[in-house]
Amino acid sequence: MAVSLSSVRLLSALTRSGSLCRSLHVTAVCCKNRAARPRVGKGDYPLTYEEALPPHYIGHRKGWLSQHTSNLKGEEGAAERTVEDVFIRRFVSGTFHNCLANEIVIKRRGNVIIVCAILIQKLTPQKFYFLIGYTEAMLSHLYKCPFKLVVQTLDKKAVYKYL
Amino acid sequence: MAAHTSRAFLSLGRINVPGLGLHKSVSRVTYSTGLSTDSSKATTGSPQKGGKKVLSKKYKREPGDPRTELMPVDQDWTAVYPVATPFIPDAIPLPVRMGCPVKGGAPPEKKGNLELIKIPNFLHLTPAAIKKHCEALKPFCTEWPSALDTDAKCDEHFPIKVETKSYVSAGPSIRNPAARIVHLSVKLSSLNLNDQARKKMLKLVGDRYCKDTDILTITADRCPLKQQNYDYAMYLLTVLYHESWKIEAWEAEKTVADMEEYSWEGSLSQENILDVLVRMKEAGEGEGEEVREQLLGRREVQEYKDSVTRLKNEGENESTMLQYKEAVKKVLKL
């Protein structure tokens, strides 16, 4: 009791002083879906097809970035494949930093994992070759399965629309 | 682009080896000033912090024609796409477009189109490619034995059929627990069973026998391996066969309730009809066993016996009820 009284007095003292005041702010709940939806801008921000379409178009206007049999009925291993996918995306986007034109597509065929990437010609071809070999070797060693990296290069990003 | 067309060759040809060392033919790219158009800018550029020399503008190699321009019309497509590979726009001479078009526009073109890469393609499965596959596989195949040209012959020589499933999935593991299940099916007519043995076999197997097709199916899945389940199923079949031929002492105590089929001789129906006929004095005068046997020999009584047996065994339907009605009318002279 005594402790609470003293803390209340302290709090009121602080409020009067105007500093270190922690109070609770409440706003109205935003019941809108904002995931992966680009906001409309001035009209000069380029968007690729993948970025421009929101996620409810997956299956209708967009395909799947990662395909494997574990998501079928009665098959096992979906969680392990998903975790592998997340790691592979981070690894590849970090290795080819700023050079990726679009998301990575991951395909699995039995044991083999095929990563399809579209790169922008920011580095010399030799550097790209090295990075491709490095990625394949590192990921093969980490996951103990053969990895293949299939790469396309573009001059600049393929723009779908401007927002 | 030359950079990634050679890349395409790279991805098609090798398995697991990193890319270095395969492209010694590519000329070394250096930061030379001779070919750059902005060389003036480079030489007049002021030095960076601390007196470091400014590097001239990087020599950027001009991308060459995409491979589609250089492809002859009658090329061997199986050489371009020998295995299943993702879509490579510069190796496929088709003006494919994919995607939802922008308002008033066309679907996005194939260059840099991620949708075309996401979907599986069958460019490696043209009829010519499949023909080549078949030709390559032919030396390893043997002919089907000519003596087994009908299904009936196959059943006669190979009465036991074993069915197993194996599963392929994408992932590092080839194991699937559903692959251990073994179904063994055999027609009972191909087994050497007499009447008693067949009835005992049917009682032993119960649900596993299908009356319409006369096939007994044994499903084994209690062992962890397919081989073990197959051995167990064969063992079960052997044991069932031998057990159904054995006659135990207590089998003599089979009652009417255990019988699989209805038999008229010695049943209530026989006694009832004989009593009725005797009371109707059809046989004429006289009592005793010989009267009953004489009655049994009569044609109407035999027909009545057939109709009752059929009714009890097959159940009630139009034809059995009709037959019973006719037989009753004849026997009772209605």
TrEMBL record, chain A:
Its subcellular locations are: Mitochondrion
> Which GO annotations describe the biological process of this protein?
translation
A single cellular component GO annotation: ribosome
Instruction: Respond yes or no to whether keyword Ribonucleoprotein is given for this record.
Output: yes
Keywords from UniProt, A to Z, are:
Mitochondrion, Ribonucleoprotein, Ribosomal protein, Transit peptide
Q: Is this entry keyworded Ribosomal protein? A: yes
Highest rank taxon of the organism: Eukaryota
Predominant subcellular localization, coarse grouping:
mitochondrion
User: What InterPro entries is this protein classified in?
Assistant: Ribosomal_uS3m (IPR026146)
Protein family: Belongs to the universal ribosomal protein uS3 family.
Q: What is this protein called?
A: Mitochondrial ribosomal protein S24
Q: Which organism is it from?
A: Dicentrarchus labrax (European seabass)
